[in-house]
Amino acid sequence: MDVDPEHSASLVTRQVRAGERGGEATRSVVARRRFDEGQGVLWHAITDPERLPRWFLPVTGDLRVGGRYQLEGNAGGTIEACEPPRHLAVTWEFGEQVSWLAVTLGQREAATSLELVHEAPLGPGFWAEFGPGAAGVGWDLALLGLGLHLDSGESVDPAGAEAWTLSPAGVAFVRSAATGWADAAVADGDDVPAARAAADRTVGFYTTPPG
User: Fold this and answer.
1) pTM, entire model
2) Alpha-carbon distance 134 to 94, whole Å?
């Protein structure tokens, strides 16, 4: 993958927000990125089940509001809202944890702004260990893949993308993204040394070869 890691990481604007659901404390990671494509083109890329595997993951299920979806080898959940071509909201269920994902597209002349909000319960210990980068860096990598697919029209090779993440350029991208999420956490009130240490652990999580 021919990617400038620092530039690519800088395309995402990151924010962390505190909140609550049902009386339970939550934290949200908010990622925003501008794409040069029109709103309809971007909506098709992020919702069409035939196109999703070209940059993200295969999806199956009853793909309508109220239906259940499943991403291959990853999360599943319920489709809570689908308002073409601007808003999609789903539950994000992985193992025993349930969180909430919403993607909103806004037309900006010839370009489209994408806002992704992933809200999760503030589990004991997990935020202290990894901070927002645990989810945030994963979405950074997904948005990178989306951008590459839109720019080239080609599919992103999953094995090649995984190998790239472990390369010097990939590690630099992950580190830049994790640092950005640490900065966002600090802006939301997290302790600076703790946020930096959590970012370092996140980099290790994403860039340590399996096995």
Assistant:
1) 0.96
2) 14
